[in-house]
Amino acid sequence: xxxxxxxxxxxxxCAESIRVNSTAPGPTATDFNGGAMRxxxxxxxxxxxxTALGRVDEPEEIGDAIAxxxxxxxxxxxxxxIEVSGGALL
Length: 90
Fold this sequence. Notes:
Elements: H1 2-13, E1 22-25, H2 36-39, H3 41-48, H4 59-70, E2 81-84
Parallel strand pairs: 1-2
């Protein structure tokens, strides 16, 4: 469903030179769920074991991926979804 929406939005906005991309974050140490992924060491360990890189994402890492998608270095990329999960979906 997300991929189809990305394609539709990209087709809609490409004539305006606007690229449409998305990220798919994995477990991230944020305020979500009352900050449990950020503050609860036990929960972080459980979630870290579910990622190939063995830890949860930090919010800055999601921001880095978004910044990369918005950069001129990826100006030829549109209608793409980038998983930023440390390999949680492998």
